[in-house]
Amino acid sequence: MTMTALGEPSVLLKLGEVVLKGRNREIFEMRLRANIKHALKDHRVDIRQRHGVIALFLPAGTEVEEAEVVAARVADVPGIVLVHLAWRVAKDTDAITKAAIELIRDSDEVARKARFAVRSRRRDKRFPLRSNELDRVVGGAINDTYGLPVDLSNPELTVHIEVDKDEAFLFTGGRPGQGGLPVGSSGRALALLSGGIDSPVAAYRMMRRGLRVDFLHFSGIPFTTSESIYKAYALVRNLDKFQGKSRLWVVPFGKAQQSIKNSGQDRLAVIAQRRLMLKTAEEVAHRIHAEALVTGDSLGQVSSQTLTNITAQDHAVDLPILRPLIGLDKTEIMAEARRIGTLEISELPDEDCCTLLAPRQAETRAKIEDLKQIEKRLDAEDLAAQLADSIQPYKLDV
Ligand code: ATP
Ligand code: MG
Hints:
The protein is α/β, with parallel strands linked by helices. It folds into 2 domains: 169 residues, VC0802-like; 208 residues, Rossmann fold. The protein has 14 helices and 14 strands. Bound molecules: adenosine-5'-triphosphate (ATP) and magnesium ion.
């Protein structure tokens, strides 16, 4: 097998907070490698742990396009802050220099004689040249070959060289990862997923803090169409790229909503139904060993999200309700939804189950005593258990 001067394509992953984990670091890194392996199950890659970075080795002769696909895919896996498509060459000054010259040959920057810099670092300190010596050797060769001016303070092109245990890596650019912690390192949660914009973003945020997230959607069937279920399914399918093995359950909620409506108390209907959703979710959470619920609430956004009403929801269950969007503006939530790819799905039309019960005026200061009255008449605890029995599962893994 002959290697070209450029070497073999590989992908270098820089880890985020995982590196702050002290003695737990080993466990976090193992979790991250398992998540990467799962995300890349359709690709041939060899995952190598290097000091502080993970290197994905692609088989000899892999096309750059395939390496790009791998880099883009792995950039979705939480726990990684930077992804570099890198060239792997022999750990030898001459090989590194030749590869650096090859690496930038066809670039814009060479064509327009842009200002450049070489930045080396050695993860293996036994390498004969020190970093700044290697910078000078490679920089000198680039300057001789292409006549580019060196600019160490504000370069337009940076050639990065990382000398490792058994090889050196070269790259010029990179893409940001998701940051955060590996999914699964913080436990499991159950997200209440509507067809709206907020709840998918909330679920994403909690995945990025290391939670494995399963999903529960309440549908108004038999009084609404199934559109909201298709939307929930499409949302979970999209979010699955961040964690894999996602699970969605749908609760047929129409009849329970009807009972709430019939219980009088129009102004309290929305908050009573939200409490019933939470009680049902808590029941499901116990069955799947989830330790928290996640919602897309944002303070003051709608009448059910006043401080009083949020408190009334917290009182409905014992499990903690995580609300990662509580302090965000709608525009910020929308920007994130666009970035993670859920916005277009959320904006599709559907018949939200909540519109079944939209009162003329919703209560913004719901009293827990009044809610408990309604719940007594409904036999809410029993109803929640029955609803949890009626869930329909959808398994996803794409
Ligand atoms: P979203 O955009 O997520 O629908 P929203 O701003 O419309 O949120 P609400 O409709 O008050 O606000 O919902 C608040 C939260 O309650 C949602 O973010 C979601 O977590 C949960 N929720 C609401 N409706 C449903 C539903 N049909 N199924 C599951 N969860 C729901
Ligand atoms: Mg909504």
